[in-house]
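Internal ticket - ligand job 157, fe (iii) ion:
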Amino acid sequence: MRYATLLLCGVFLSCNSQSNSEKGKIYEISKSEETWKAELSEAEYYVLRQKGTEPPFSGKFNKFYEAGTYVCRACGHALFLSDHKYDSRSGWPSFDRDIEGHVETLTDRSHGMVRTELVCARCGSHLGHVFNDGPRETTGKRYCINSVSLDFVPKTK
Ligand code: FE
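stdout (structure tokens):
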């Protein structure tokens, strides 16, 4: 009986820890919200785990064009390449594509809008949204990403 109770608690907690990502989905990297909170700064936790948005023109990667790879701030998964970054003038780092299969899309119905949300495919942390007003000469997509959701790994020469 005691074992069954513990088991039920475990199931409840593991589902609950996913409440800020796709409901019920267990990602390859799954941690309790308490653990994420301890590992991330307040701003990072707000954006990555609570689906917040950093103020436009405030992020460190908004006007940043060095060669390298952008990785998930939460788990280190490679998400975007500098070759695909462009200046959308939106105030957020923008890319015309992701590293295929490394970013997952979800339907976001918050704030009275229907948008396509982007999360890290490995840990489910929030990155931003994708829109169809990107550069026409390439993909036409604008991956609008929060700087605080990213880390940068420079290309080695
Ligand atoms: Fe991640």
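Auto-summary: The chain has one domain: 19-154. The pocket of fe (iii) ion is lined by residues 72, 74-75, 77, 120, 122-123, 125 (CB under 6 Å).
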